[in-house]
Amino acid sequence: MIRFLLRKALGLVGVLLAISLVVYAVFYLAPGDPAQLACGEKCSPAQVLQVRERLGLDAPVHLQYAHFLQGIVAGRDFSAGTGLLHCPAPCLGVSYRSGEQVTDMIAARLPVTASLALGAMVIWLVLGVGTGLLSALRRGRLGERLLTALTLAGTAVPVFVIGLVLLIVLCAQLRWLPFPSYTPLTEDPQQWFWGLLLPWFSLALIESAKYARLTRSAVLETLAEDHIRTFRAYGVGERRLVTRHALRGALTPVIALTALDLGTMFGSAVLTESLFGLPGLGKLLVTSVGLIDLPTVVGLTLVTGFCVVLANVVADVLYAVTDRRVVLT
Amino acid sequence: MSRPTSTPRRLAAASATVALVVGAAACGPKADGGGGTGKDAAPQRGGTLTVLNQNPQDQFDPARLYTSGGGNVPSLVFRTLTTRNRADGAAGTKVVPDLATDTGTPSEGATVWTYHLRDGLTFEDGSPITTADIKYGIERSFAPELSGGAPYLRDWLVGAADYQGPYKDGRTLDSIETPDAKTIVFHLAKPEGDFPYLATQTQFAPVPKAKDTGTKYQDHPVSSGPYQVEKNENDGAHLVLKRNPNWSAATDDQRKAYPDTIDVQSGLDPAVINQRLSAGTGADAAAVTTDTNLGPSELAQVKDDKALAARVGTGHFGYVNYLAFNPKVKPFDNPKVRQAIAYALNRTSVVNAAGGSSLAEAATTYLPAQETFGYTPYDPFPAGATGSPEKAKEALKEAGYPDGLTVTLTHSTDTGKGYGPNLATAVQDGLKAAGITVRLEALDSTRYSKTIHTVGTEPGFFLSGWGADWPSGGPFLAPIFDGRQIVTDGYNFNSAQLDDASVNDEIDRINKITDHAEAAKRWGALDQRIGEQALTVPLFHPVYKRLYGKDVRNIVISDWTGVLDISQVAVK
Amino acid sequence: MAPRETRAGEARAAAPAAGGRQVWRRLLARRTVRAAGLVVVLLVLTAAAAPLLTAVEGQDPTSYHNDLLDSAAGGVPTGSFGGVSAEHWLGVEPGTGRDVFARLVHGARISLLVAVGATLVQVAIGVLLGLAAGLGSRLLDQLIGNTTEVMLALPSLVFAISLMAVVPTDFSRPLLLTLVIGLLGWAGTSRLVRAQTLSLKQLDHVAAARLAGATRWRIARRELLPALAAPVLTYAAVLLPTNVVSEAGLSFLGVGVKPPTSSWGQMLSGATTWFRADPMYVLLPSALLFATVLAFTVLGDAVRTELDPRAASRLRVGTTGGPGGPGTTGEAAA
Amino acid sequence: MSPEPLVQVRDLVVDFPVGDGHLRAVDGVGFTLEAGQALGIVGESGSGKSTVASALLGLHRGTGARTGGSVLVAGVDAVTAEGEELRRLRGGSAAMVFQDPLSALDPYHAVGDQIAEVVRVHRPVSRRAARARAVEVLDRVGIADPARRSRSRPHEFSGGMRQRVLIAMALACEPRLLVADEPTTALDVTVQAQILDLLHELRTETGAGLVLVTHDLGVVAGSVDRVLVMKDGRAVEHGPVADVLGAPREPYTRALLSAVPRIDAPAAPGQGTGPGEVLLEATDLRREFATRGGLTRRTAPVTAVDGVSLTVRAGETLGIVGESGSGKTTLGRMLVRLLEPTGGRLHYRGRDIGALGERELRPLRRELQMVFQDPVASLNPRRTIGESVADPLRVAGERDERRIRARVGELLERVGLDADWYHRYPHEFSGGQRQRVGIARALAPGPRLIVCDEPVSALDVTTQAHVVALLGELQRDLGLALVFVAHDLAVVRQVSDRVAVMRAGRIVEQGDADTVYDSPQHPYTKGLLAAVPVLDPVEATARRHARLAAAGA
C-alpha cells in the first residue's frame, strides 16, 4: 500500500511536469502576445515592451519555465508597484491579466467547482443508480425500455442544450426554481442549495445516464454469477438478492467511476459554469485561455490534472477497499 | 469597444478596440423605453440595485480601467475632473464638471488646460481630496505594473512617452503642475480641444499616495464617489458597493445615488441575464444590466408582451461596424473593386445577422447617426437596402473583372462580436449575386485582433468595428484615417493605411477648435470626403436594447453610453 | 473528451465467441437492432445524398431568405413552426432565413464524417499503443501508461481550443476537428486494449503461438487483434456518439467547422437561445443528435451482448456440467 | 422404511430453450431416496446429472426451462410449488452444496453473514442468533476458530475450507436432504477425501438424505448407498453401489468403469524404444514471482519452483504429479521456456537455454512443444483448427499452400480427426476433439519433446482414456519424450516411465513409476496415495476408517 502510494505520488509528479511542459509548448506555439493583451490594444510598442519585461516574458521560454518551476518549489517575488509581492511556495505565478496570485485565484474558485461537482455527484448517484437498478429489475418491460431511452437521451444532449432548456422552463416559465447563482455554503446554506440546484441537475442528468447503464449492466452481470444462484437455491427472495448481493457487486465499479468523474469534473464543468455564470475553475480556465494568461492556465491545468490523477489513485484504492480481492501493485 | 449584441460565451474577453468598460449611462424615457414605472412615483433613496452582467469587473484600479466617460459602475466610486452629463439622449453627450469647477480653461491654442477643484471634496476616509492626489493618480497609470487604460495621456502630455510611473524611481511628471491643492495644470504636446472629454476617464480620479498598494489597490480602491467597495470577490465576479458616508450630494450634481447598495453579479450567460430580468423574481425585480442586450430571440418574445416591452431601454452608443479594406493587397488597391463590393452588399442580410432591425441600423456613413459626432447623412454608393448586383457588376467590369472575382474575407470565430461568422456569411451571401465569390477565413479572437492590427499581416478584406472613447468625431476618425497614426511596430488602427496630407491637415485644424458644435460640423464633412474613397464599407450602427427590472425607476439613457446610468436609477 | 471506460469492462477478458456470421444473424434477429441499424443506414444515406435531397427540395444550405424573417423581432422566421412551407420543408433559420432541411442534411455529413473519422483515429492510436504497452517491455508499458495518464489528465477542451488556434486556417476544418478529437481521445481505448491484451496474453493459445516460434508482431496480428475486435468495436460504438457531441461542443465554442458549412453542433450552438421564440430550430438538431446517439448505443450494446458470453448466460441458472465444462452440450443451458 | 420416501422423482423431464427449439436435458428420470440414505448420480458431461440436482430444488423455475413429471421432496413438489412453499423447500427442507466454492459465495460479504442470512430466511430469529448459528455450523464442519473466521470473506479461505463453508451453509437450517453437486471436483485429492468424509459423517449424524452428483466413480464408491448412472438425460443403470460398480449390467456402465485409470494397476507404457540420449536437463531450477501483496500486506516474492533438478531422455515419459499450488505447471512451462527461470540451469541437448532471449529461442522452439490443459483456451476461437495447426508450419517458413494443407490433413488424421475438418472452428468440437487438435498442433513442427500440462483433467473419463492412449501411441511411434504433468495419480501412473512427486515447489520423491507407487518413501507420497478414491466400496470404507483412525490418533 505504502509502496503503491509512493509510486503513484512519483507518477503524479511526472504527469504534472509533463502537463505543464505541454501547456507551455502549446502556448509558446500559439499566436497572440500576452503582453499586448495585458497592456491593451492601444498600448504603444514601448509600453508593450515595458509590460513584457515586467511579466518576465522577455526571457527565453526555457528560462520562463525554469522560473515557474522555481516558484513552485521555493516561491517567487513580483513587483507590485509600491513594493514586492511575495508569492510563497508553491507559487504558480501571478496572472498576467490581473496581477493576482494564481494560487489565490484558484483557491477562491475551488469551492464553487467543488460545490457544483459534489452536489451533482449526489444527484447523479441517486438518479443513476436508482434508474439502473430499476431497469435491471424490470428488464424487458415497457417501462424499463422507456427509462433506458431516457437515460440515453441524457448522454446524447449537450449540457448547453439541457441546461438552457431547463433554465427557461423551470426558472423563467414555471418559476419552480430560482435562477442559478453561487452563494458560499458558509454564508447561507439554504441559498447555496437553491442556487445550485439547477446546475446540479443539468450536470447530473447527463452523468446519471452513464451510471444508470453501468449499474444496470453490473447488476445483471452479478445476478448471473454463481453466488446469486447459491442464495436463490437457499430461498432468498429476489428483492433481497438484488439489494444485498447484486447491488453490492455493482457498487465497486460505480464508486470507482464516481471518483474518476469527480476528478475530471474539476476541469470539465466549463460549459456548465459558463452557462450558469458560476465563477468556478472551468470558467476561469476558458477565460484565461482566451487571454493567453499562461500562469493561470498552467496553474489551472496543473490543479485539474492533479485532481484527475488523484481521482485515479482514489478510484484504485476504493476499488481495492470495496473489493477485497483486488490487490494494488 | 463595447459591442451591442449579446456576447455569448466569449473565449477571449480582451475586447479591445476601444472603450472597454463603457459605461453606461443613462437615460430615460426615450423612445419605446418609456420608463414605465419610472415615471409615476418620485424616486426614493434606499434598497439594493442588482446589476447582472456578462463581463466581470475584473479590473477596478482607476489606472487600469479603460472607460468611456468614466464607466458606469466605476463612476459610482471614482469621481474625475470632468464627467459626462447624466441626461437623456443627445443632452447626455455633453461633458460637465465633476471634481472641477468647470470643464477646464484652455490656453496657448488648447495646449495648456487648467482646472480648479470644488470645495469640500473628501475621500471615503474623510481626508480631503487635493490636486496632488489627481496628479498621483495619473502618474501611477503610467506604471507597467498597472498596464491598461486609454493611450491618450501618453501621446498628449509633454514628456510622457517614456515615463514609467512613480514606482521605480519616484520620478514625477513635470507636465502636470499643482501650484496649490486646488489647482492643476496640464501641458500638452499638441492642441487638443477634446481634453475635457479625456478628463472624464478614471485616470483622472484622485488616488491618495499613502493608500496606494500597487497591484492590490484594485481590491479596495479609495472612493471619492457616492459608493465604496464593500466586497470584491473572484476578481470582480461579484462586487458589492455600499454608501460612502463621506460623499456629499452637495458637491456632486451628477450622481443621484438612490439605492443604498449596489450588487454587481457578473460572469453570467446573456440568455440567463435576460431571462432573469424578464422573470424579475426576488431581487431581480430591482435589477439592470450594463453590458447585455436583448438577444434576437428575446426580441421576438418582447414583441408579443406589452408589459415586457415597457421595460426595454433603447439607447445608442457611438459605434460603427464596417468592412475594412487594405488597399496594399490586390485586388483591393483598385477603388472600383471596393466600390463593387459596396454596391453589392446586402445590408438587410447583415442587419438580420446582427440581430435584426431593432438591434442594428443599416449604415452608409462611417460616423454614427448622432449630432455630437458630426453626423452628415450621405451614401456614396446608393444601392438600396439589399444591394445592387447590377451596379456592382458594372463596377467590376470597369475594374477589369467582367467574369466575377474571388476574394477572401477574414473574420473572427467569436460569434458574440461584431466581426464573427454570422456577419461574414451574411456578407458572403450578399456578394454572391454580384458574381463575387467570398472565401471566409476565420481566426480566433486574440489572433484576429493581432492579425488585423499589424501592418505586416493585415488581410485585404476583413470585418471591423470602431467606437469612440467619447462622443466626438475626433476619436472616431483620427485613429482610423490619420496618416501619422499608422503604427508599424505595434497595433495599427489605420487599416487602410491612408496617409493623405489634406486629411491630416484637416484633422489638425479641427483639433484646435474648442467649440464642440463647430468641430462636429467639420468632422462630418471630413467623414463624407473619406467615405467616397470606399476605404471602408459601413455596415450598421448598433442599437442597445436593454431590459430592466420592474422595480427600477428613473431611467436615464444618454447617447454617450447608450445604456441606463446606474448613478441615476432608483429602486424605491 | 472520450468516455471513461468502466473497470468492469476493462477487466473482462475477451471471450471466445461463436463465428462471426452467427453473431451477425443473431444480431439481425432483434427488432431493436434492426431499427437502430435502419436509423444508421438512413443517416448515412441522407448524408451521402445530401446534395440530391436538397435539390429535390429546391433549396441550398447557404442562401439567405430575408423576406421570410421578421427583422424587427430579431429575425425570427415569419409563419408557424419556424417558417415551415412547401418550399422550406423544415422551416428556415432565424436571423438568416437559410433552409433548415438543407442545413440539417448537409450538417449530417460533417457530423458523421468527423465523428467516424475521430473514432477511427482514437481506435487506431488506442489499439496500437495499447498493444505495444501490453506486449512490449516493462519500460515501454510504463512510458505508454504515463502518457495515457497525462492525456486523461489534460483538460481536453482547452487543448482542443488551443490546437485549433495553432493550426493555420487553410487546413481543412473537418479534418482538423477529426484529428483534434481523435488525438485527444485515445486514452480510454488504449487502456482498454492494454488490459485486454494483458489478459489475453495469459491464454494458452497465445502461449502455443509463441511455442510455434511466432514473432510478437505475428502474435499481435493473429492471436490478439481478432480477439480485441469485439471489445474495441463495442467501445467504438460508445465513442462514436460521444464524438458527435464533442464536435458539437467545439462548434459551440466557435472552433468548429468554418461557416457557412453547417454541422449539427454548429446548429445547436446557435439554436439554444431560440428555444422560446423558435422551438423547431432547437428540436430538430437535438432530435437528430439523439436519434444518432441512441442508434449507435443500441447497436453497441447489442454487439456487446452477443460477443460477451457472460451477458449471454445472464440470469440463467447455468448448471455447469461435469468436468467437460460448458460449451459442448445443452446442459450448459446456453 | 417410512411410508413416504424423502425424495420421490417420477418421470422427470427438463427441456432447455435453445435457439428456436428446445433441448431435452433430462428425459424421464425417476428414483426415490429414503431419509438417511445417500444416492450417487454419476455420468459424463452432458448426461443431465446436474440438471436433476437443480430440479430437486426447483431451480429451473423462471429460467425458461420446461419441467415435467413430479419431484417430491419432503412432501413438496418442486415442479409446481410456489412462493413461500418453494422458499421453505430451498434451504429449509433441502439444501444444495455447489461445485465451485469460490464463485458460489458472495465475495463481498463475510461468510458468517452469508450463512446468517440464509438462517434468517427460514427462521424467525434475531440477527445475533442467526450469527451464532452460523458460528455453530462453521464449527461443526471443522473450521478452526469459527467465531473469528466467520468474519472473513470467501477469498480469505483455501479451496477446501470454502467447500466446508458451503456445507456449513447447507447445514444451517437442518435440512432433511443435502444435494451436493460435484462438491469435490475443484479440490485436491487429499482435501477431497476430507470433504467426502465430512459429508458422510454429517449424514450419519443428522440422518439427512444425500444426493451426490459427480463424474468421478471413485467418489461415489465410498460415499453412497445407491448409484444412478446417467447418459444423455436418461437413467442407464440404477442400483446399490456395490452392484453397479462391482457387477455392472449395462455396457455403458462397464465402459465407464473400464475407462477409469487404476492406480493399482501397473501399466506398461512405451518401453518399446528404451531411454535414449538426455534431451533436457534441469539443475536446481527456480522460479520466483514478484507478487502483489494486498492493500496492507507487504509484497514478497513467491517461490513457485524451488530448486528442481531432473532429466528427460528421448523416448521416455516423465510424470510430474502434485496437488494444486505445487509448482508443477510453472515447472512445465519453464521446461519449454514459456517462462524464464529465475535461478538454476536448463540444458537442452547440452545447450544452456535457461537464459536465452526470445529471438535466440525461436529456432529451438519447434523441438519443444506443449499440450495445454484447457482445450477451450488453448485454441484461438476465431481461427479454424486447420489454421491453428498450420501455424507452426507457416512460421517455419512454409509457403506452399498445398503442402501445408496436406501436412495439416495428415496431422489431423494422425490424432484421430477428419482431415476435412480443416475449416471448422473450435466451438464446433467437443473437449476431447479439441484436445486432439492441440496435440496435432504440438506435433506439427516435429518436436522431440512435448510437455503435457494436465492434458486430460478437463475431459470425461472415457475421453480421457482415449487421449491418454493417443499420447502413448504417438510417443511410441515418433520416439518422443513426454513430460506429463497432472494431479491425477492414476493417470500419471498409466503413462509414465518415471515419476516425480512435487510439493511446494520441490520434488519430494522421484523414481521409477512402479517403485514410487508401490513403495512410496516420502510420507507425503504415502498420504497422497492413501487419499485416492478407489472403486471398490468395501475398500473405500476401509480406507475411510483408516483415515479417521489416523486423524483421531
UniProtKB/TrEMBL annotation, chain A:
Q: Which Gene3D superfamilies match?
A: MetI-like
Identify the main location.
membrane
Arranged from A to Z, the UniProt key words for this protein are: Cell membrane, Membrane, Transmembrane, Transmembrane helix, Transport
- Known InterPro entries for this protein? BPD_transp_1_N, MetI-like, MetI-like_sf
Give GO terms for biological process.
Answer: transmembrane transport
Describe the location of the ABC transmembrane type-1 domain by residue ranges. Answer: 110-319
From what superkingdom does this record's organism come?
Bacteria
- TM stretches of this protein: 9-30, 112-134, 146-170, 190-206, 249-271, 291-315
User: Cellular component GO terms, alphabetically?
Assistant: plasma membrane
Database matches in Pfam families: BPD_transp_1 (PF00528), BPD_transp_1_N (PF19300)
**Could you confirm whether the keyword Secreted appears in this record?**
no
Q: Where in the cell is it found?
A: Cell membrane
Membrane topology reported for the UniProt record: Multi-pass membrane protein
Keyword Endoplasmic reticulum listed = no
Q: Which family does it belong to?
A: Belongs to the binding-protein-dependent transport system permease family.
What name appears for this protein in its UniProt entry? ABC transporter permease
Protein species of origin: Streptomyces rubellomurinus (strain ATCC 31215)
Automatic annotation (TrEMBL), chain B:
Q: Name one Pfam family in it.
A: SBP_bac_5
Q: Which SUPFAM superfamilies match?
A: Periplasmic binding protein-like II
State the InterPro entries in the record.
Peptide/Ni-bd, SBP_5, SBP_5_dom
Q: Which residues form the Solute-binding protein family domain?
A: 94-484
Q: Which GO terms describe its cellular component?
A: ATP-binding cassette (ABC) transporter complex; periplasmic space
Chain spans, region Disordered: 29-58
Question: Which stretch is the leader sequence?
Answer: 1-24
Protein name, as recorded? ABC transporter substrate-binding protein
Task: Report keywords, A-Z.
Answer: Signal
Per the record, the domain of life is: Bacteria
- Species of origin: Streptomyces rubellomurinus (strain ATCC 31215)
Has the keyword Signal been applied to this entry? yes
A molecular-function term among this protein's GO annotations: peptide transmembrane transporter activity
State the Gene Ontology BP annotations: peptide transport
Automatic annotation (TrEMBL), chain D:
Which domain of life does the protein's organism represent? Bacteria
Identify the keywords attached in UniProt to this record, alphabetized.
ATP-binding, Nucleotide-binding, Transport
Asked if Translocase is a keyword of the record, the answer is no
Which parts of the sequence belong to the ABC transporter domain?
7-257, 280-529
- What is any one GO biological process for this UniProt entry? transmembrane transport
In alphabetical order, the GO MF annotations are: ATP binding; ATP hydrolysis activity
Q: Which InterPro entries match?
A: AAA+_ATPase, ABC_transp_ATP-bind, ABC_transporter-like_ATP-bd, ABC_transporter-like_CS, Oligopep_ABC_C, P-loop_NTPase
User: Which Pfam family is one of those matched by this entry?
Assistant: ABC_tran
Q: Mind telling me which PANTHER family this protein's record contains? A: D,D-DIPEPTIDE TRANSPORT ATP-BINDING PROTEIN DDPF-RELATED, TRANSPORT ATP-BINDING PROTEIN
Name the family the entry cites.
Belongs to the ABC transporter superfamily.
UniProt protein name: ABC transporter ATP-binding protein
